[in-house]
Amino acid sequence: MNPVLVVAGARPNFMKVAPIVAALEAGHIPRFLVHTGQHYDAAMSDTFFSELGIPAPDRHLGVGSGSHASQTARVMEAFEPVLEETRPSWVVVVGDVNSTLACALVASKLRHATGCRIAHVEAGLRSNDWSMPEEVNRVLTDRLSDLLLTPSTDAEQNLLREGIEPERIVFAGNVMIDTLLRMLPAARAMNSPTMVRLAGKPYAVATLHRPSNVDDPDKLRVILTSLCGLTRSMPVVFPLHPRTRQRVTEFGLESLLEPLTATEPLGYTEMLGLQAGAAVVVTDSGGVQEETTVLGIPCVTLRETTERPVTVTEGTNRLAPWPLTEQGILTATNAALAQGSVPLGSRAPHGWDGRASERIVAALESLGSVA
Ligand code: UD1
After folding, report:
1. Do the beta carbons of residue 230 and residue 204 sit within 8 Å?
2. pTM (predicted TM-score)
3. Which segments of 108-168 are extended strands (E)?
4. Is residue 125 lining ligand 1, measured as CB closer than 6 Å?
């Protein structure tokens, strides 16, 4: 019986892969989990596997960091023999990281030789900003995939507008929310030292990692200065992505971390618990925009565009005025604070209901030769 091969590569993939693997197992469908190793250290990878109960990968490609070209190429070289050996019925790729595109590209060239088909989970999201590496990864992965599993209705519209045949598109809903709803009780019950220190007080959570924000010293200084400004009203918890940590040091901006509650990258449960209790979240992450929308926590996104517009039109998200300025970020944050939080799920878009992984596995079963 040919397995369903599921690819996980980087931190934002792990919460999407966890419920898909669980749903395959619940349906007794053989699966083969590949970890490309794009993210590799304990804080960015291992802790997500243990907290989310993801089984150990059947194969670890160990590619590590590198330039976009070398990282993508290394995943491709390492993935090709795995595909030839396992001959899966489906290759399931999620999200928009380099590993997503690399594995979809390899599978598309071996489609006929191995008999596999490609399913893209989180298909159809578009920022229309081609300077983002993730946008390149999203558009190309969608072109290469046989089955496009969309998280929201705007994603379907984007694909149809690009001329994708409607038969290739299936609405799945947002699989990340399956993990959020499963983990929320544990997240709320968690008592990490940071959570204990902040309990009962208003606080903000900030995350930052987009190259377009953190690789530019002036922009990084503006953002950090605005977060320092926010500490005049409340503590700001700032878990630092490794890329951001490197840039802060390189640009000599360490003093701007002092007023902030800067931490190492957090595990999933603690990050979710902190978001759920926050007065406001400031971020440039895609996943955090979605999580805050379901949690009902106001969010300010530090980007010019978002590929997740439903978080703005239906959810609790807003974009900070562009170009970013200290005053603009603070004004948007104050407006978000004035808006306040809403009850869990009251702004959740259609299909962000904890059952996306069931719909994904049902689509694979109905269209392909699984089990
Ligand atoms: C990647 C994804 C991005 C995603 C983000 C979430 C692409 C193009 N980008 O960006 O879509 O939102 O992950 O985290 O795929 N590093 C570590 N430990 C690790 C992993 C990385 O220290 O476990 C360091 C690397 O050495 C590198 C930096 O962090 O210097 C950035 O890692 P990289 O994989 O290049 O991209 P991200 O910025 O994490």
Report:
1. yes
2. 0.97
3. 117-121, 147-150
4. no
